[in-house]
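so ive been stuck on this for like two days lol. basically i have the seq below and the ligand is coenzyme A, smiles is in there too. i just want the complex predicted, nothing fancy, no docking runs or whatever. if the output looks off dont worry ill sanity check it later, just need somthing to start from for the group meeting slides
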Amino acid sequence: MCALVDSWLQGLKTAPILYSQRLLLRPICVGDVAHIQKCINDRRVSDNLSYTPHPYTMEMAEIWTRNVDKGMGQGTCCYWTICDGKTNNFIGSMGVSLYREQENCELHYWVSADEWNKGYCTEASKRTIVHVFEDLNMHRAQVTHREHNVASRNVIEKCGFVLEGKSRESLKRFEKFENVIMYGLLQDEYLALKAKGIY
Ligand SMILES: CC(C)(COP(=O)(O)OP(=O)(O)OC[C@H]1O[C@@H](n2cnc3c(N)ncnc32)[C@H](O)[C@@H]1OP(=O)(O)O)[C@@H](O)C(=O)NCCC(=O)NCCS
């Protein structure tokens, strides 16, 4: 079996294909490496991420994708490639780290800079949140952003996450200490948002 198909099957064990109004979220696979490298190597994206180096090489993208694939096989995370539902074009990446014993999970995302401000991340995040609460029966979802990252803050607020605090200067990025803002959403809070039509 070729590596690509093998990888796809690993992903399918934990990350089902998810559909939303405009998007298709499918398990990430090694065939996405070139898109991932191109997007993350763009400073508009990487400057807002917490850990990725710059420049971001094909080798780095391949190692990251393989590690994610391994995690998906072990059930410790789910990562999807966000695609246009009609054209299948690559838009970005959505992931959740799964802390299964705590019934808790954490969202991670980025969108190709050319596709920003079209509501894609909010739509993909909401679809993922539905999945973690309704299919995985998680008790809690959490997410963080660097303090200056207004776009990510807007996504988080539009998804209805509750502000939980500021972790002061907990991230050292490009030789600078930065505050990290933390949010959570409990399953009953999600259900209340759903009852209000937000989900
Ligand atoms: C954060 C990110 C994923 C958002 O993706 P997106 O698809 O553009 O997000 P959406 O379009 O769903 O929502 C973005 C919101 O932020 C707003 N926004 C974007 N940049 C902004 C800015 N500089 N100031 C104020 N608002 C801004 C948009 O207007 C939009 O809000 P609106 O729908 O109320 O108008 C994208 O900017 C990205 O990939 N950034 C780099 C990586 C990153 O930051 N990842 C998250 C790490 S925590």
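Residues 3-195 form a domain with the Aminopeptidase fold (CATH 3.40.630.30). Residues 30 and 65 are 6 Å apart (CA to CA).
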